[in-house]
Specification:
three-stranded antiparallel beta sheet, 1 helix, 43% strand, metal-binding
């Protein structure tokens, strides 16, 4: 943030574990934000994240593999009902 610049954030609760909103700056820039409290939840697929109401839209999420090891994946939460996990090698 630049000295003299001000920012404000507005948002709302979407589900019991997620919040979303927008931010605005005095320099004219703005954007959207999302916050999910999923510390108690462990997911193995993007569909599980979506069904739990923990989705903040398309993007990178952390899931665990079959060995309970965490991994970052891209989740498409909007196409054809959402919950799609992009896997690459």
């Amino acid at each position: 943030m630049v000295t003299g610049q001000s920012q404000y954030f507005s948002g709302h609760k979407v589900t019991s574990v997620s919040y979303q909103g927008s931010w605005h700056s005095s320099d004219g820039t703005s954007g959207d934000w999302g916050l999910v409290n999923n510390q108690q939840q462990v997911f193995t697929t993007c569909k599980q994240i979506l069904d739990a109401g923990a989705s903040t839209g398309d993007g990178i999420y952390e899931i665990v593999d079959d060995n309970n090891e965490p991994m970052s994946v891209y989740c498409d939460m909007t196409s054809h009902g959402g919950g799609w996990t992009l896997v690459g090698s």
